[in-house]
Design brief:
Largest sheet: 4 strands, antiparallel
Number of helices: 4
Shape: globular
Order of helices and strands: EEHEEHEEHEEH
Radius of gyration: 15 Å
Distance between the termini: 12 Å
Strand content: 25-35%
Length: 146
C-alpha cells in the first residue's frame, strides 16, 4: 500500500528508510498482517503482540509505566485500562482504536527519542515529522518478500 516503495540506504548493515506518518501507519498494518501472533515491537521498556481477538497485549517495564502514568499516557482512552503484573512488567490489553490513541500519546511523550525497538527494527521521528526506520537485513528480506 505504500507507493512508490521507499528508497533505502544501508548504514552499518541496516536498511534505513523514511516514511511519512500516513505511510508509517500503512507499514505498521502490513507488519501486523505478516505476523499477527508474534511479538512486534520490543525493547527492555515495552513490547506488544496482537492476540487472536485482535486486541493489543502490551508488556511495559516499570520505568516506562511510571513515565506513561506521570505524563497522562492513557489520555483519551476510557476507561483507563486495568493492568496485571507478570514477572515485574505491567500487562494491558487495548482494542485497535485504543492502541492508535496510545501510540499517539507515546509519540507525544517521546518525540525525538528512539522509539521501541528490537535488534530487528527501531525508529525515530525526525524534525520534519518523518519516521526514520532502521531495519535489520533479515526483517528487510521478509518485508520485501511479501
Amino acid at each position: 500500500g505504500i507507493h512508490p516503495v521507499p528508497h533505502y540506504k544501508l548504514v552499518y548493515g541496516r536498511y534505513i528508510i523514511e516514511l511519512t506518518a500516513a505511510e508509517w501507519r500503512i507499514f505498521e498494518v502490513n507488519l501486523k498482517k505478516m505476523s499477527t501472533s508474534e511479538e512486534h515491537t520490543s525493547t527492555s521498556n515495552m513490547s506488544y503482540t496482537v492476540n487472536s481477538s485482535g486486541k493489543y497485549v502490551i508488556s511495559i517495564a516499570p520505568e516506562m509505566w511510571k513515565m506513561i502514568m506521570s505524563r497522562d499516557g492513557f489520555a483519551g482512552i476510557h476507561p483507563v485500562p486495568h493492568y496485571k503484573l507478570e514477572s515485574g512488567r505491567y500487562i494491558i490489553e487495548l482494542a485497535a482504536a485504543q492502541w492508535g490513541i496510545f501510540e499517539m500519546n507515546l509519540k507525544r511523550l517521546t518525540t525525538s527519542t528512539v522509539h521501541p525497538s528490537t535488534s530487528n527494527m527501531s525508529y525515530t521521528i525526525n524534525s520534519s515529522g518523518k519516521y526514520v526506520i532502521s531495519i535489520a537485513p533479515d526483517l528487510w528480506k521478509m518485508i520485501m518478500s511479501r
